[in-house]
Amino acid sequence: MGKTRIPVVAIFDVGKTNKKLFLFDERYQIVFERSARFLETEDEDGDACENLESLRLSVFDSLHEVFRRDEFDIKAINFTSYGASFVYLNESGRPLTPLYNYLKEYPKALESALHAKYGGVGAFSLQTASPALGSLNSGLQVYRVQQEKPEIFEKVKFALHLPQYLSFLVSGQMYSDMTSIGCHTALWDYSKKAYHDWVTDTGIEKKLAPIVQGDEVFSAAFPGSTYKVGVGLHDSSSALIPYLLNFHEPFVLISTGTWCISLNPFNEDALTEEQLEKDCLFYMTYAGTPVKASRLFAGYEHETQTKRIADHFQVTTAKFKNIEINWSLVEKLTGGNKTPTALEAFRNVDINQFADHVEAYHALIVYLVAAQVASTKLTLSNKKIQRIFVDGGFSKNNIFMSLLAKAFTDVEIYAASMAQATAIGAALVIHKEWNSQPIPTNIIELRYYRA
């Protein structure tokens, strides 16, 4: 008798820095993990970019390794990766250009001309729910190839977003998915619920693969394979999936890291110009419904300002790790005054006024939470939310969480922790294709914060 093999799903989670492969069992426990980092390469202008060839080889190499292990029975494979990146494929599925970096400088004249043609930057951004972000509006990257490299554009069969390119490597199928199209790409007209006129007018639409739902699966391209292949997801939308499947009452998720992104899947009100100016936009769920989102560069600010406080008081930044909230300090620092909500406000605060690093750190978090509350409020509507979940770095910060609970007294505030939320989202979305068990209810650990 051979031993029984564990049914698993394989998930590739491709970040800018780390490329990971996870195998999850039917209880969503990680039973295998492999991580890789590659050197960046350069595009034809000498700008740094992802090495597509290393990425392609790494996908096949990792799959080869897990298929060789006889303790696992791989039922399905899915992919999640950063957005705003296109791969231009020819008839035979070979990339025609480097994978341009979404931070690449965008030609101002090209951007302005396109905006001007469609009612100016304000109207254009509102219709596409995409603040004008240059190359981060990945649709404009396709436009640039069309305008600057017509001979290459001619040969393009389809331009695929990175998650769908990864899926294509294994399924041989070329498709587009809504989570990638819906994320500040400037491609989608949210009021029309279709591609924006400029995409059709320029003929770019013909180069975009047919759209499928994010929970779609295909058969593998290799003869004799029985596993299913998912279409791939944009990482920010993927991390929301475990919450959408577990909680049905209206909630907001604040996903914290370098960027703190507030995601409200229960607000479809059209964006206003003021919201756009404050970095508010729509993301899209895997089912194609809008998620109102606002972004705040708070993790970055926290890092630079804790360094400033640490240097001033000559302590290491590790000292800030587990400080519990001291309410009388908070009382002293706020003293009934309104804290400014601009993220950069703390930069102008003189640290000399604080007795020690603990007081200074409390002051920093008071400022950061004020900015966070203002940012999260941009995503709220008349539809009352019941809960706010915070995941990522700040969810482990006692002062941050306590102050947030104090600011939102009429909402339940939870610190949520889940290892590898992005990868788990990509596994959950195709749950029924690989998993014989019901979706477990304990994937997300919650800790309640009282004001």
Automatic annotation (TrEMBL):
Keywords: Kinase, Transferase. Residues 249-433 form the Carbohydrate kinase FGGY C-terminal domain. Pfam families: FGGY_C_2, FGGY_N. One of its GO terms (molecular function) is D-xylulokinase activity. Residues 9-230 form the Carbohydrate kinase FGGY N-terminal domain. InterPro entries: ATPase_NBD (IPR043129), FGGY_C_2 (IPR049382), FGGY_N (IPR018484). GO terms for biological process: xylulose metabolic process. Belongs to the FGGY kinase family. This is Carbohydrate kinase, FGGY. It comes from Sphingobacterium deserti. The lineage of its organism: Bacteria, Pseudomonadati, Bacteroidota, Sphingobacteriia, Sphingobacteriales.
